[in-house]
Each structure stands twice: as structure tokens, then as C-alpha cells.
């Protein structure tokens, strides 16, 4: 099931072509996006997602339709979604730089998409992952802003290729590492690690995306008395931890059961506790 | 002027939307492309461009329509182009992985586009460039194929951001360097350097695109008695040379007059000679 809305709030047939061949989004992946989880008509972390969309637009030096237009499109998709048959959806916001050689008017849409049974199952059952080199140093972002590290652009071919590599190795997911072995992020997720009653995640200063779901989990965990730390940690720390999770809007808090073929502590009670903490936000 | 043809050879209105919102090309820059120079109805280096498109598809593990389909679309655009008013065009071949969640049928097109007066002027007058870090080591490609180095994917947001950075610094072009200072490539070109009667360019094993225009120049230069070398050289070599050029299909052989604010030797006779060599292929 797919429901497509334009930024003026019109709902249109998702099978009707929407983008010209010379849209810069088509020709060069020149645009930005967000993916939002909507449960029972309520978009989760909509504010942080729109904040991040605006941040990506700034890093890309591209015009972005105003916030109210995105809110209108989100509402239109939610109103048109068949909630009686599907209680959750992944809501994608996409914005391109517009037509090549045009006046810079961006083209955007909001699209609600079914969340696969496989994804929902993994939230409960966990995943296996491989670590893959991302090829970057952790201090690159600050000195090389043209590399668009930390912007959520439409140029996601590498993220998809990494997931194919994981599949070829018999795993579900990827955890990227920096040149010095620092854990970065997944292709579409943030990495969270537990050590006793402390949760850790990698700082955005390494060039990764600031996680909206990770942020929601940490917010709830702090209120429940957990310590939270945003600091770098090496690949080895994944194995020497009380649990590893991938946090993403659609997968929510997914437990990692094994990395590079090595089983991890994957405590079911701890997973249930973190899931409860995350869900307590809504 | 834009002329758009589908892979069945149909010419369609370029202003009519062609891609669905959920095409993977739109949503994730998940596809590949080539840009070919066509002069007086003759596509230059069509074979090498189609070879490279096929190589990119292999690296991306995506299905690609057969070669005859691309040749048919190229012919359709050339036949429909107004040659009496525009003697050259840039011909773009684009292929996406198709619809998200679909059966993997790729979506492609060929589009002829006017070459701007600015581009044609730069072929004669040269450009200024800045060097920018690409953030990668030169040995990364071989050990990390999931990073898609050397594939010409639609995920070109970084290439475009680098060109904006050049513009912000008052320059026309970018020359990327690796972490060890090795000269890599431009965002849409290869770097060629002259030392006496020797031409040098960076090897594709560093993760750069194999240049079709650079290849044509080297082919002609060898026949004319030049020595050619495909080997790495450091940023400093740019300044300690008898000339630097950017080779690309649409810009052909563009001389670099200054890099990072430092004037280079930009000998007009040598530029004329290299241009003549390149043109002698056609």
C-alpha cells in the first residue's frame, strides 16, 4: 500500500509519474529525505525529523518548502491511509533541488508505505550484522563539509550497496566503521550499545546522522535513571558490551544478535526494557 | 533545448513526468548514468561509454537494459535533435534500479541537452580550480567494493556540493585529492598533466572513474609520439608540471589556468596541440 501526497496537500495516484527526467533528484540524487514512523495516525518525532530535513537542506545549500507545507502533506497522507487494515506506516518525505537549469524551485512529496512483515518481525527477533569500512576518518566532517557527511541526501547508493554486501555475507544489517575502527552508524540506523545501566551512541561530529529514534530512546532512558553517553567507541566495544541495538524510525529499537559471525549478549529482558522505554515516549 | 527518448526509441516531451515517486532513482539515487558528447550527429566514444555503463551496473548489481536498447535511444535523440540550430549536444543516459519493492525492471532514458555557452567558452579559455579532500585512501576501492568507488552512480550529491564549494572560493572547478595527497579526479572530469612530451593521469585503481575523453586523448597522443603514463602523482605535481587539463565528455580538454589561487603554466600552443590530438579521433 502506498499513499502519495503533494506539498499542497493533494493526494495523487502513486503510480502516476511525478518527476521529470531532468529533475536533479533523478539525474544526480540531488535532494534530501526523511523517513518517519506513523502509528495509529500519530507521526513519531515529527519535529526532530523536520529539523533534520532543514539541517540537510542547509548543508546542501538548497531551498526547502516551508515547514507548514510538509506538515500539510503529512496530514494528507495520514488522513488517506487505510488505518483499519494497517496500523503503522513508514512515511517518507522527499525533496529534490528541482529541474536541472531551472529556477531552484524544489520538488517534494510525502509518501506513506506499508512496513513489511519482515521488518516488524525483526523488531522482536533481532538481526545479525556485519561491520564494513566506511573509508572515512572521524574528523573529516568538520574540515570537508562538501562531502555532505551528516546530511540525509538522496544519494544513498552506497548505503544500499552496503546492505547488499551484508546479505551476500548472510547477515541482515551493516555497522559502518571509520578508518581508525570507530563505530559509526548503520546505512539506515544508529548504533546503541549498553554497558550496565549506561547507553552509548556515536557522536554526530563523526559525520553520522543524528538519530531521531536514538534520541527518543535516550530521552526516555534518562528519565528512567539510565546514564547516557554520546561518545566514540571502537568496534571491539560491540563485543564487550551488554547488548547492541540499531535504532531507526521504521525498525525502532532492533537488537543485534550477532556481529561478523560472533554471537553477542542478546538479553531478552534488556531488549524488552529498551523497547518499553522507547515506546513510553508516545 | 532538451530531447528525451525512451529505450524503445519513442521520443517524448521532456516536460512530461517520467518517474514515479517510488522509483529507486528518485528515492535513493539508486542508478547509474553516462554523459556523451554528440557533434554533428556523431556520438563520441559511444562504445567506451556503454562499456562503462555496463561496468557500473555490475558494480551496482543491477539489471541493465541491453546495449541495443541504449543504441536505439541514442539514435532516436540524435534524429530528433535540431542540428541546424545546435551543432553539439550533451547526451545523458540514465538508468535506475526501478520501482521500490518492484521486480527489478530498470527504468532508463536518453536525453539530449544543450551545451551552455559558458562550457564551450571554457574549452578555449580554460578554468581555475581548487583542490579539495575526497576523504578516501587510494587503496580503498579494492578492499571495500560496497563504497561503489569507480561506479558512475546517480548518487552525485557530493560531486555537486564540491562544485558549489569551488564557486564559493571563486573557482570554476575541483580537483579531488586522497588522504595521502594523491590527485584523484574532478567531480565530473579526469585530471591530465603534461611533463615535457609525457602525459600523465591517475589510475582507476585509486577508485576514480576511467575517463573516456582522457582515453581518447591518450590514444591519439600515443599515435603522435607522446609518452603516456597512468600512475599516481601528488598534489604538488600539479604545480610542477608543463600544464594541467580536465578531460570530460562535454568539456572535452579544458586547460587549468590556476589551482588554489596559484597560476599554472598554461601554454596556449600546448593546449591547442592537445585539443587537436583529441579532435583527431573524430
Biggest protein-protein interface?
A-B, 57 and 57 residues
Number of domains of chain A: 2
The assembly state of the depicted protein chains is homodimer
Q: pLDDT average of chain A, as an integer? A: 97
Instruction: Tally the helices of chain A.
Output: 9
Give the percentage of residues in beta strands of chain A.
25-35%
Tell me the radius of gyration of chain A. Answer: 19 Å
Structural class of chain A: alpha+beta
**Poorly predicted parts of chain A:** none
What does the overall shape of chain A look like? globular
Give the name of the CATH superfamily of the largest domain in chain A.
D-amino Acid Aminotransferase, subunit A, domain 2
Q: What is the name of the CATH architecture of the largest domain in chain A?
A: Alpha-Beta Barrel
Distance between the termini of chain A: 24 Å
CATH topology of the largest domain in chain A: D-amino Acid Aminotransferase, Chain A, domain 2
Helix content of chain A: 25-40%
SSE ordering of chain A: EEHEEHHEEHEHHEEEHEHEEEH
Supply the CATH class of the largest domain in chain A: Alpha Beta
Number of strands of chain A: 14
* Main sheet properties of chain A: 8 strands, mixed
Pfam families (chains A, B): Aminotran_4
GO cellular component, one term (chains A, B): cytosol
Keywords (chains A, B): Lyase
Family (chains A, B): Belongs to the class-IV pyridoxal-phosphate-dependent aminotransferase family.
Amino acid at each position: 500500500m502506498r499513499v502519495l501526497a503533494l506539498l499542497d496537500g493533494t493526494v495523487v495516484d502513486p503510480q502516476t509519474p511525478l518527476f521529470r527526467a531532468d529533475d536533479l533528484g533523478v539525474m544526480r540524487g540531488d535532494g534530501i529525505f526523511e523517513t518517519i514512523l506513523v502509528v495509529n495516525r500519530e507521526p513519531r518525532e515529527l519535529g526532530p525529523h523536520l529539523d533534520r530535513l532543514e539541517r540537510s537542506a542547509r548543508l546542501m545549500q538548497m531551498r526547502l518548502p516551508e515547514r507548514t507545507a510538509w506538515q500539510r502533506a503529512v496530514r494528507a497522507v495520514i488522513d488517506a491511509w487505510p488505518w483499519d487494515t494497517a496500523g503503522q506506516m513508514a512515511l517518507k518525505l522527499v525533496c529534490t533541488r528541482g529541474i536541472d537549469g531551472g529556477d531552484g524551485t524544489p520538488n517534494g512529496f510525502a509518501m506513506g508505505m506499508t512496513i513489511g512483515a519482515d521488518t516488524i518481525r525483526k523488531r522482536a527477533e533481532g538481526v545479525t550484522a556485519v561491520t564494513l569500512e566506511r573509508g572515512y576518518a572521524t574528523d573529516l566532517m568538520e574540515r570537508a563539509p562538501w562531502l555532505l557527511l551528516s546530511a540525509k541526501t538522496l544519494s544513498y547508493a552506497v548505503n544500499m550497496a552496503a546492505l547488499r554486501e551484508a546479505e551476500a555475507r548472510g547477515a541482515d544489517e551493516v555497522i559502518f566503521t571509520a578508518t581508525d575502527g570507530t563505530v559509526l552508524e548503520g546505512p539506515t540506523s544508529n548504533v546503541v550499545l549498553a554497558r550496565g545501566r549506561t547507553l552509548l551512541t556515536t557522536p554526530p561530529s563523526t559525520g553520522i546522522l543524528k538519530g531521531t529514534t536514538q534520541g527518543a530512546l535516550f530521552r526516555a532512558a534518562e528519565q528512567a535513571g539510565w546514564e547516557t553517553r554520546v561518545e566514540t567507541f571502537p568496534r571491539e566495544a560491540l563485543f564487550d558490551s551488554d547488548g547492541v541495538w540499531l535504532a531507526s524510525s521504521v525498525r525502532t529499537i532492533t537488537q543485534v544478535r550477532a556481529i561478523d559471525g560472533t554471537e553477542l549478549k542478546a538479553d531478552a529482558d534488556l531488549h524488552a526494557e529498551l523497547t518499553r522505554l522507547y515506546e513510553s515516549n508516545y
